[in-house]
Amino acid sequence: MRSSLHFVSVAAIAAMLAAVPGSAQKTSGPKERYEMDVATASGFAAMAAGGGGMGSALGMMLGGGPDSKVAHTLDLRLGSNQAPTSPPVRADHYFEPQTKLGKSVPLLGPEPGKWAPREETSDTMPDGFERPKGRMLLFWGCGAKAGPGQPVIIDFAKLAAGQMPPNLFTSTVPRIREVTTGNSKSYAGWPNSKSSKQPPKDSSLLGAHRIAGNVGPDISFTLAQDYMPALNASTAQQADGSILIRWNQLAPATGYVAWAFGGMDRGGAGGDMVWWTSSSAREFGGGLWDWLPPSVVANLVTKKIVMPPTQTSCQIPAEVKKASGEMLMGNLNAFGPEANFAYPPKPAGNAVWNIDWTAKVRFRSHTMLMIGADFGGMGAAGGAGDASAPAEKPRKKKCKGPLGIPLPDGAC
C-alpha cells in the first residue's frame, strides 16, 4: 500500500489548534506563506546540487567531482489564499548584495505547457525512473554486522507492472511542506523555467530579505543564520569487511542520517541491488532525504531513526558491502535549524492574532561519496582523495544506478 502521508502543512495544523474551543488565543490567516529551503552540498552532491527530497537526492548521482567542492542551493515557494491582482501569479525575492544573485530573483506561477512545480510525496520517484528487473536487498542500522531479520528482500519480478514495492518508503517520517500548489489559491516558486542559477559558494544570506508580488502584502524579514558549513566525510574499509564513515561535526546540526546504494550496475540486468540506511529501524526515504523541523529531528533521535548531533561516525555492515560488490554510493544528510517569522507580531494577552504573512527558512547540509570506486582518488574509500593519484579516463559506457537512474561516465 502506498504511503498515505504526503505533505504536512504546519500552518494548517496550528490554525486548527488555535480554533479549538478553550484555546488561549485565536488566530486568523495567514494570507500569505513563504518557505525558503537552504542547502549546502559538498563532495559529489555539489556537482548536481539543486532542491531537496528523494527525487533530488537520487538526481545527485548524475554528477561526479572533487570532494572539496561546495555548492549552495535555494528553493523558494510563495503561497497565498488570494488571487493575483493582475494574472499571472508573480513575485520577486529581493536580496542584499552579499547573496550574489543580483537585485532579485523572479518567482513564477505554473505556466501551462511550460513549467509546473512537481507535487512530490514521500514515495515520489524521480524523473527517468525505470522499474528494476532484479531484487532489492534492504539493510539498516550502524554496526559491523547487520542486525537480525536482514536483509529484507524485494523481488521486482513478483510485482505487477508499474507497482511500487509495498512499504518500501517510510510512512513514519513524511516530507513536510508549508507551501504547495495544493494548499494555495495562488502559488509561485523559484527556481523556474526563466531563472534557475543558484548562488555561488562564497555568497551569504545574512541580512534583509523582501518578497513582493501580486498576491498579497510584502514579506520582510532579517536572517541572522547563514548557510550551514559543508560536510566533509570519508570512508575506510575495515578488517571485518564493514565500511567506516567519518564526518566533521557541524555546530548547527540537529541530527544526521546516512544511506547508501550498492549493486547499481545490476538492476537493469536482473541482479541484486542494495539499499542501506543508518536508521536503527527500517525507515527509507521520505523526510529523511529532506529538510525536517528541529523538534521532529529531536524526536527521531530519541527513536534512533536519526543519529544525534554529537555523532561523527557510523559503520556500514559487512553484509552490505559484500552484497553490493565493488562500489557503494554513500550519502549523508545533516538536518539544521529553522528561522520563523510572522507579521504583525503576536499581540499580548488573548487578543485575536490576525496574521498577514508567515515565513519559514530551513537549513541543511549534505554530501555524497563514492565508496570503493576510483575516480582519480576522489570519493573513494579511505578519505578525501589523493591528489597525486592519476585521473582515471572516463568510460564511454553508460550504466544504471539505483532504480534505473543513469550514473556518470566511469561510475561502473
What do these coordinates show?
By secondary structure, the chain is mainly β. The chain has one domain (10-404). Helix content is 8%, strand content 30%. It contains four helices and 18 strands. The strands form four sheets. The protein has a nine-stranded mixed sheet with strand order 7-6-14-13-16-18-2-3-8. It has a four-stranded antiparallel sheet with strand order 5-4-9-10, with no helix packed on it. The chain has a three-stranded antiparallel sheet with strand order 11-12-15. A hairpin with a 5-residue loop joins strand 11 (233-237) and strand 12 (243-247). It is elongated. The two termini are 34 Å apart. Residues 1-22, 50-67, 120-129 and 374-412 have low confidence and may be disordered.
What key phrases describe this protein's structure?
disordered N terminus, signal, 412 residues, 18 strands, single chain, 4-stranded antiparallel β-sheet, disordered C terminus, mainly beta
Task: List strands and helices in order, with pairings.
Elements: H1 10-18, E1 27-28, E2 32-43, H2 53-59, E3 70-80, E4 90-94, E5 104-108, E6 135-140, E7 152-155, E8 186-190, E9 207-213, E10 219-223, E11 233-237, E12 243-247, E13 255-262, E14 272-277, H3 294-302, E15 313-316, H4 318-324, E16 328-343, E17 353-354, E18 357-371
Parallel strand pairs: 1-17, 2-18, 6-14
Antiparallel strand pairs: 2-3, 3-8, 4-5, 4-9, 6-7, 9-10, 11-12, 12-15, 13-14, 13-16, 16-18
Signal peptide: 1-26
Region (Disordered): 102-129, 182-203, 382-412
Keywords: Signal
